[in-house]
Specification:
Shape: globular
Largest sheet: 2 strands, parallel
Helix content: 40-55%
Structural class: mainly alpha
Order of helices and strands: HEEHH
Number of strands: 2
Strand content: 5-15%
Number of helices: 3
Oligomer: single chain
Distance between the termini: 18 Å
């Protein structure tokens, strides 16, 4: 699901897990966070209210997602 979101141009906010550490890069294409509801809410609000940040991270996420394409 994370790669599907990224290829769609969406920045990712996910629980920090070693499975995602090579895919999601903080402040580049999304955020990997400790399991904390407050942190998740803060980062969601950050992306909802900052169009420039959301577009930049989304663009970077899309580029990252393309690296993992089935092609």
């Amino acid at each position: 699901v994370i790669l599907e979101a990224m290829i769609s141009g969406l920045p990712v906010i996910a629980v920090a897990d070693k499975a995602y550490k090579d895919i999601v890069k903080n402040d580049y294409n999304g955020y990997l966070l400790k399991k904390n509801v407050v942190l998740f809410a803060e980062h969601i609000n950050k992306l909802l209210h900052d169009d420039t940040l959301r577009k930049q991270l989304g663009s970077n996420a899309h580029q990252t997602g393309k690296k993992f394409s089935a092609k």
